[in-house]
Amino acid sequence: MANQKEHDRVTKFLRTNQELLKTSQSLRDIYRISVDRNPRKPAMISFDEAGKKKVLKYSAFKNQVFVTAGKLSRAFSAIPAGTVVGLKLKNSAKWPVFFWAILMTGHTPLLINAALQNENTQNLLTQAKAKSIITNDDGAYSVPSFRVNDILGLEANYAFVPDWADHVIFCSSGTTGDAKMAVYTGKNLCAQVLASTDMGLVTTDLMYPEDIRIFAMIPFHHIFGFVAVFLWFTFYGKTLVFPNSNATKDLLYAAQKGGVTHLFSVPLFWDSIAQAVNRTAALQSKKKATILDRMIAYNNHKIDREEAGLGASTAARKAVQKKALGTKIRYAISGGGYLSPKTMSLINGIGYPLHNGYGMTELGVTSVDLSPNVEHRLKGSIGKPLYGVEYKIRPLDGSGEETDTGELYVRSAITHEREYLGGSLSRVKTEDGFFATGDVAYRDAQGCYYIKSRIKDTIILSNGENVYPDEIEDYFKDVSHLNNCVVLGVKPKGEKEELIALVVEVDNQINAEGISKLKADINAINESLPSEKRVQKIYLDRRPLPMANNMKVKRIAVKKGLEEGSEDYLDFEGKKKTVSFEGYDQELVSELQQKVTKIFSAVLLLPEFKIDGNADWGVDLSGDSMSYVEMIQEIESQLGVKIEDSKFGVLMTVNDFVKDIIDNHQDSLKKGKKA
User: Fold this and answer.
1) What is the pLDDT of residues 158-169, one digit of tens each?
2) Is position 406 within any domain?
3) Are 416 and 188 in contact (CB under 8 A)?
4) pTM summary value
């Protein structure tokens, strides 16, 4: 642990943020301090298509923001002053430039997920009453749309006079229907910067005067990426490192070539790194696998140096890290959801100090486990409230008395003050200034907090037992051929009580033998669990599980599909959902069934009698993704129809295709008969 002198030095540096207290505490003040603090230091590192490193210093960044704002002022000549402007771009060195430039022109940025579909984007623009959008999307919106290169191609307006706006809008949920959007003021975000004030009292590794290079992979439209990566680190004059994409090879290249020292991401990312290390270890010799096991145990303080042997050596640790995220990472944080204890153990065990953090779109980032003690980190705590933040836990039944387990309430100046809900702007509802998070939390004797689950996700069994789905999911994540999984409470038709259901997404290359082994592995794990945690229903999702902006599975969407009997989900115990042809022309149905069955047979090299109308292409017939594409091409060619791309992977049985063809391609069938 660092000595007191080092803690004092780091704390003094962090408290330079209190310069904000002498200002009007606006977004303009945050920007001014950010760009003027260290003009000669690198603000951003990115890579061109050839992998060559590009460095942008803060002085050049400041100039780019002003020039871009001048160009935007020309582009926005017909856009009403003081209105909302959508910003829908992937993370890149251009994102911070356009973010500050929008504010500098007097407009409020609405931060939108770059991967969001156009229809949902339009919904957000409408409900936030936006008057324009900056995006590289194809397609039109109801408001003027400006592409990045078109704006950059405009003539600079050096006579431009900044007229700063002081609000930012974050999108929380409801990207279809009524959207919920949190409106932050400059004061809210200054309070967020000030929340870092006392971090140096606990750790000297998170923020310090020397160079820091933080990986800019978490999207900046997300509160975690915006606050913990973009806002905090640029305010203190540190360097953002941008990967070219989130493809594994680009992430690893940028992390290593960019000399990344800090890496913050969501649990899904850390799970993938842990799984990659485990897969690599499985391919190594037994001796190397043993060294890795001992390394993990040693770094997690489970065994001593003598027992660890080579596992305690710096050379062995660096050899593992070189194949993961590089050897320079000094601090890592997971935020945005439940982090598996197995993942926490492995990442810390290979020498990356991984901590848990907590925040919400409505609250910003309110706590981080700062402990330099690995034993404490492995407990999964989200730490204690940051500077200027209060936590309180109240019983789930709504009574006012404080307790150690219940719903977490937060009070701080960071909390957004207004929100759009269904297009209406209103003040945030709080109780005595405390915001109800909807999260089930626990506080230990040392005053550290732990998140158990979302209240809405908690499964309440018939005996009144509370079951937390995140904990159950963790048991199944390492099963072979499993891409993703989700546990949730569902009430299938005909059932009186809510059941614990597991929905699995498998990789496209799995065959019938693999499916059988997958079932056996899942059943074996399930039988080993305590009775109150055992899964009661297992489903196979034909498509990738739906993901939310925070990179967690949308449990509500899956729950709705299961309870409504969606054909996207197959009962894993072999009870197939049948396609009904009641009311259809039975002669046409029979004719198409014969034709599609012949195509299935020819592509799969299976006898026709083995292909039942409800047999699944992958699960029952062992077809893979390549042969699936070939099969669709044959159906389109022989029947003269066009299967929509959105149906790929959804239509999986003969009867699926027959029903879709009759429902959507009658005209094509008639033309085919005439020909």
Assistant:
1) 899 999 999 999
2) no
3) yes
4) 0.81
